[in-house]
Design brief:
membrane, elongated, Rossmann fold, about 45% helix, 3 domains, Helix Hairpins, about 350 residues, seven-stranded mixed sheet, alpha/beta, Alpha-Beta Plaits, four-stranded antiparallel sheet
Amino acid sequence: MKMRRIISWRSDESDLEIPVHRLLDVVSIPTAVRATPWSLMARRFAYALALIIAIAFVSYLDKGGYSEDLTFIDALYYSAVTLSTTGYGDITPVTQSARLVNIFIITPARVAFLMLLVGTTLSVLTEDSRKTLQIQQWRNSVRNHTIVIGYGTKGRSAIDALLAGGASPSSIVVIDPDPNALAVAEKRGLVTVHGNGTKSDVLRVAAVSRARSVIVAPSSDDTAVLITLSVRELAPSAMIVVSVRESENQHLLMQSGADSVIVSSETAGRLLGIATVTPPVVEMMEDLLSPDEGFAVSERQIADDEVGANPRHLADIVLGVVRSGELYRIDSPEAETVEPGDRLLYVRMNGSDAARQE
């Protein structure tokens, strides 16, 4: 299911040329599961062997039509040397029927035999070229994708939410230095880039300048700051969402260019405190954050008949109004009526309202 990647290209921010052989082990594009070269050769060898045995049976059925009366071993020998085009000439067809069998059965079988052997060799030799071509095609066409930097617990959970929200696996690119983590991501159909997300070259390989959003989920806060700085420099218009452990680092991320910062330690701490007082509240929060079941927080465009209405009086449970990129809570004066172009942040039941979401 693996694949790797490309040639030289011109990035939107600067020219960057990387030889193909250096990228084949960097980028992996998910494809249909392919057999290894050894299994491919073994399978085709079995086909060739079966063809030799089949032609041996055909020759043996007309064993009296050759220069000597054939045993089955003779027929097998004749089949092998004939299909392989060795042709010693010690056994030859002498009757009309034997010669017709050679013309209409054994000769086409000889061509098929050679195609099997040559096809296996060409398939193995051209595998890297095939991978390079597919990677180049992906690199030329990728737009508005989401890059997830760090495929740990937070990165995997973020991808789960993206996929549950309808995102295509092919629109998600994972960057991580751990080959084992990337192997897991590949099995989910995700495009992967092997490397350190703090390096500009790695980000360019992932086409960060054309990404719609970037999720930064490394294991340490200082790494998150470096990644955010690099991403913002290369992708001024991308939405950057960052996860940090400590709240005192939140302002550093905002100054580095993050659009949103999630403080994981404080969020977990609040939930722990609430769980000791009102456990059902925590259960409901987990339900809202679980993408596959129960309720979920979602966003949708307002309908034409909802323009001018108070969002509190709509059929959905509205939490806020998104207007020109700004979120207004339901109790704010700006959210008293909805305007054309607004989007609603609301609570929906998973599996429903699919037709209303964009």
